[in-house]
Amino acid sequence: MNPNFYVVLAAILFTIGIVGFLVRKNALVLFMSVELMLNACNLLLVSFSRVWGNLDGQVASFFVMVVAAAEVVVGLSIIVMIYRARHSANVDNENLLRY
Amino acid sequence: MTLLEGLTPVAPTGLFPLAWLMIAIPLVSAGLLLLLGKVANSFGHYIGTLAPIASFVVAVALFADLLGRPDAQRAVSVPLYTWIKTGSWTINVGLLIDPLSILFALLVTGVGSLIHVYSIGYMAHDPGRRRFFAYLNLFIAAMLVLVLADNYAVLFVGWEGVGLASYLLISFWQHKPTAATAGKKAFVVNRVGDLGLTMAIFTMLAWFGSSSFEAVNAGASKMSPAWVTLLGLLLLVGACGKSAQVPLQSWLLDAMEGPTPVSALIHAATMVTAGVYLVVRSHAVYAETSTAALAVAIVGTVTLLAGAWIGTSKDDIKKVLAGSTMSQIGYMMLAAGIGPVAYPFAIFHLLTHGFFKANMFLGAGSVMHGMNDDVNMRHYGGLSKVMKITYYTFLMGYLAIIGTPFFSGFYSKDSIIEAAWEKQPVLGALALIAAGITAFYMTRLMFMTFWSRKRWQAGVHPHESPAVMWVPLVLLAIPSVIAGMVMNAWIAGWLAPAVNGEVPANASWLPSITPVSLVTLVVIIAGVGIAYLIFGRTAIPESVPWTRNVFTIIGRHDLYGDAFNEAVFMKPGEALTRGVVALDTGVVDGAVRGSSALTLGLGGGLRKLQNGYVRSYGLTMIVGVVVLGLAFVIGRLV
Amino acid sequence: MTALLVPLVTGAAVAYWICGPIMVLAALGMILFRKAVYSALSLALVMINLAIIYASQDAPFLFVVQIIVYTGAVMMLFLFVVMLVGVDSRESMIEKIQGHTVASVLAAVGAFILLASFVGSSLVSGAVGLDKSNSEYGGNVQGLAALLFGKYVLAFEATSALLITAAVGAMVLAYAERLTPRLNQKARAKIRIEDYVTKGIHPGPRPSSGVYARHNAITSPALLPDGTVSQDSVSAVLVQRSGLADADALSAPTKKAFAALDTAQGPDEEEL
Predict the structure, then answer these.
(1) Whole-number Cα distances in Å, B46 to B68, B117, B172, B358
(2) Under CATH, which number does the domain C9-88 receive?
(3) The model's pTM
(4) Cβ C103–B626 below 8 Å, yes or no?
(5) In order of start, what are the domains of chain A with their CATH numbers?
(6) Binding-site residues on chain A for chain B (CB distance < 8 A)
(7) Which chain B residues are closer than 8 Å to A95 by Cβ?
(8) CB atoms inside a 10 Å sphere around CB B110
(9) ipTM above 0.85, yes or no
(10) Span B260-294, pLDDT tens digits
(11) Where exactly are the structural domains of chain C?
(12) Is A78 part of the contact surface with chain C (CB cutoff 8 Å)?
């Protein structure tokens, strides 16, 4: 299977993740878009590990997963705290750091 | 006439190591009087008078010592300490007591002491009397530094010191705006002269690595002609500033705003003669350059005519005497410019002028004291009967200045006119004419003040001054009469070694009858006669009469000296300053403010990017990544 | 005869062409659904498909880890938080920042072009394949282990520290200190009696719903001793939704039965 196909697929997923991050207002969906982007990178890493013929790409992908898990933990607890304070998960409401 | 070599200084012995006391005593006294404050108001003037008397005593002792020495040992060098020693330059502070400087020291301390005594009476009702004496003592100390220094740098310290004292004393009555302005004017014009002197000192340091008189005397002959002429001209500029010679003469008449003792001491007898001292001291330089010496003579001639011209048209008694001072110093400069043959005459005239001019100024002060401090001669008249002592002493001074035979001025001024005539007949003729004009305006002064009918204002009761004031007058009138006879035979021989002068063969107390002296006598009698015709026979008007006489008009306006200075120097300078200020506020400040405004504007525009929405920040990030990626692409393709 | 079995399509290709479009559609759904739960579920679908693709790319370990960790743990965590934050809320799709949508799409397209062209252009030849690496240590897992504990042991240790930090951080963030002391039963009882005294709120439990002969749903109201309906016995929500059941109709069969008994027995007899 030509690796280019996987590259294109990963690029499409990444782009969709970008659009989702920029367009949605719900904090959770924003976070999910970030997860989608991470997964696209994982796909790319695994494809390339097959291209070069060593397992380093898969190890990197493994690390990405672990770090993403840790990040999700902390990020979601922050969202919960924000929700507790404001009773809303809309990121547009947090716009106090403005001119 | 034999030409002697310059004197090499010898080491100090006997009383000479204490020569610095002459300077220290007035300086300490000045400091004490200023620091003690109001506490010393009751006795300050006594301390202030004792100080110059003590210096005079030391000067007399040193003079007696010098008299007893043979000619070759008459210059004593008293080194005090090393001031600047850097690289190849050495400037030491030391004193040089030689025939020239001891005469000046005697004049300064002697006349100065008499004027101090006079001031006790003159300033008796002035609350600032203690401060006055402090400044007078400061002046004495600075003037002694000037004349006793053994190098130009220390001379310059004294130079500046007397300039400071002059400023402080002219504007002594600070509450009067005219006095304050006059002090400022004197200082500023002096500064222009100081520029010349500093440039001269720099030239000496550059050429010789030292500014001491020894080094300059030894090295003057080794300088290139252009440089030595420049040096001479720079020294002349310095002398012009201090001695109120044309073109730096505008401050002297305004300086009469100060109290009369100040005018007597500083602006008649001593400070204004410092320029002459400078020129005579630099005889080695002027011996090498006939151009600069001629310039000195020309400056002197122009000034002696200008001063006489101004003196003919002024109604203020002090301003007439100031014009006369300017003119007489012109004579001294003329003599200094003529060369070694006339140096002793310049100093001789300086000494006699010191006596009779101080005498006349103090007399004028006495007259003003009696006339309620009015200086306008048109309000005087008939004072010879009321103020007898003042009148007789003033008369002695008057006869001396016009050059009456056997009086002191006769010997000194005639010698100068003769020397000028021998050197350059044009200069001699002009000096002769000026002698006539001098006789004219001095006689005019006598008529207006003492001899005519009374023109006193209401409420004025002229009376003789107290003893503390007329005793110095008498003590100064005596040398005005006899100093010429006493010194004529002796002074040239005394000074010649110090200034490389020539000793005239037949000097004695008898006046020498030469054609020039006879013509001078005729001219003087003519001047007196003309003055009698104009002022003696008809009544003198009480207000300034309107006249169509061009000479009178120009004289009344000080030969338009102030107008010239203003047009040529002040207005362009002011325009330049305004331009620079405009440049500063417009360009420099404008650049600063403009850059700050630019930054503020930029910041104001950029801050709109921060709208607080996380998603737009994310957009900026993605766009940035895309741009960077594009940059990479283009970089790798190109 | 393996030489004759020339595969027309490989398993990886099949996996790709089936999972790929599903993934793309699910991703699009994730960003377009207005309800957060639907977005989360779409993302879970994407991740499962990814796992399948990993499997087809000779990464069996990652296939399993993806499902267990990512889909099973991370996405479930997302769903729990969605539940806490507001499972019902529908997000409004009106964009407040001017020009943002267009700019975002353009930026994303630009990023796509860059990615696809760059990363794609760096591939010189085809894939080497992982057969050798997977069998070097006797399997994919063993190979990964050799790398993790060999070349990348430092990163591994650091990542473990990161995990601990994340866990502690989450606990710290979620911890809310009590502002008032915790009420125990004695305090609660006191409050209840005070409320009864001052505000007249009944301290006891509310009456439970009525039990009738043929009907004992929680919409049946209970009857007070004087025969009126007790409004407290049915939840207000149920009253609003479906209304109280008619008490008379409910008690009608009982009344009828008692009336019938009365007529059958007579009013004087009292038989047990």
Answers:
(1) 33, 9, 19, 21
(2) 1.20.120.1200
(3) 0.64
(4) no
(5) 3-87 (1.10.287.3510)
(6) 18, 21-23, 25, 30, 91-92, 94-99
(7) 611-613
(8) 23
(9) yes
(10) 999 998 877 788 889 999 999 988 888 888 889 99
(11) 9-88, 207-263
(12) yes
